[in-house]
Amino acid sequence: MTEKDINTEEVKNEEVNNEELGTEETQEEVNTEEAPEAEKEEEEKDPLEKALEENADLKDKWLRSVAEFENYRKRTLKERAELILNGGEKVITAILPVLDDMERAIANGSKTEDPQVLREGMELIYQKFVKTLEAQGVSKIETKEADFDTDLHEAVAMVPGMGDDKKGKVIDCLQEGYKLNDKVIRHAKVAVGQ
User: Fold this and answer.
1) Which long-range contacts (CB under 8 A, 24 or more apart) does 164-168 make?
2) Is 83 buried (19+), middle (13-18) or exposed (0-12) by CB count in 10 A?
3) Taking a C-beta distance cutoff of 8 angstroms, is the pair 177, 146 a contact?
């Protein structure tokens, strides 16, 4: 082989290489032309798919929140019902010793003929009962020489001719009133001066 033949062979190899490169370039050009269309389709699908996925996530979160709220509502209703049914347990437990004392007084009452002993026993039980109620937050509404107050008193009688100093004042208490923790649970029934 001569130098000429070697040079021509090299030139042919380069041409072949260039042709191969050229075909690759044209294939890449074709692929890049197709790629934007595929990307466009993906871009068109992507926002929709994203929106659908986000919608599914939000729906799932919403359903979970609704279920949690429903469980919370049922639990609070159950607790409220239990409080209503068993709310007085503390008060009843506090009053039971007074009931025991009354039963003992009744049982021992038949053994004695002295009314003074019975009276003293009843007074002791009464004092114990009042202390028990006070410990539970129950207090008596004061009516003695108090000004008439519609928030605390209920007028059942108006007494005329009591004088100006007794006008609008409580003259007599017919039934005691009580408050539970500063809330009136029974108004005092009173006679008011006119």
Assistant:
1) 166/193, 167/193, 167/194, 168/192, 168/193
2) exposed
3) no
Q: What is the DSSP string of 133-152?
A: HHHTTEEEPP-TTPBP-TTT
Looking up tokens 């595929």 gives 38
Neighbours of 177 (CB within 10 A): 20
DSSP 88: T
C-beta of residue 95 within 8 angstroms of C-beta of residue 132: yes
Rounded Cα gap, residues 104 and 116, in angstroms = 16
Q: What are phi and psi of 23, to 5 degrees?
A: -70, -35
| 131-171 confidence digits (pLDDT tens) | 999 998 999 998 888 888 888 889 898 888 777 777 888 88
Instruction: Please check whether residue 184 is in contact with residue 143, taking contact to mean a CB–CB distance below 8 angstroms.
Output: no
Rg (CA), the chain: 49
Question: Six-digit token pair at 73?
Answer: 């509502």
Region of poorest pLDDT, from 23-32, 65-74, 89-98: 23-32
Q: How many CB atoms lie within 10 A of CB 170?
A: 22
Query: Is 169 in contact with 192 (CB distance < 8 Å)?
Result: yes
Tell which residue, 94, 83, 76, has the closest CA to residue 138.
Answer: 94
